[in-house]
């Protein structure tokens, strides 16, 4: 699994680069990441309640963290399997 999209999403979110985050949303093959970005950007642009914006941001960050952990576990397992093959 390629983790570049997750790294970019973290970077763009941290730097408040919403245009680049929108482009990443369209280009990423990960549908879940795309949907989380979409929900966050929609809340950021149209919600007046800050708690909803914060909730969507935390959902995006939790998903990125989860995806990176799963990717790390898969990579570690694959590397271990190839090492002893």
Please give a structural write-up.
With 85 residues, the chain is mainly α. The protein has one domain (4-83). 84% of the residues lie in helices and 0% in strands. It has four helices and no strands. It has helices spanning 4-14, 18-27, 31-46, 50-83. α3 packs antiparallel against α4. The longest helix is centred in the C-terminal third of the chain and has 34 residues, at 50-83. Pfam families: YhdB (PF14148).
Please write out the topology.
Blueprint: H1 4-14, H2 18-27, H3 31-46, H4 50-83
Helix pairs in contact: 1-2, 1-4, 2-3, 3-4
In what range is the share of β-strand residues? under 5%
The figure for the number of domains is: 1
Strand tally is 0
Uncertain parts: 77-85
Main sheet specs: none
| Percent helix | over 70%
Oligomeric state of the chains in view: single chain
Q: Mean pLDDT, rounded to whole units? A: 89
Q: How do the SSEs run, as a string of H and E?
A: HHHH
Structural class: mainly alpha
Between the first and last Cα atoms, what is the distance in angstroms? 21 Å
What is the gyration radius calculated from CA atoms? 15 Å
Count of DSSP helices? 4
Which outline best applies? globular
Short overview:
It holds the Pfam family YhdB. By secondary structure, the protein is mainly alpha-helical. The protein has helices at residues 4-14, 18-27, 31-46, 50-83.
């Amino acid at each position: 699994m390629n983790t570049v999209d997750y790294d970019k999403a973290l970077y763009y979110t941290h730097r408040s680069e919403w245009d680049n985050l929108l482009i990443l949303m369209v280009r990423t093959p990960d549908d879940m990441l795309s949907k989380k970005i979409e929900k966050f950007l929609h809340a950021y642009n149209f919600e007046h309640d800050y708690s909803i914006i914060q909730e969507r941001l935390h959902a995006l960050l939790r998903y990125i963290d989860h995806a990176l952990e799963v990717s790390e576990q898969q990579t570690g397992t694959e590397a271990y399997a190839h090492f002893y093959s």
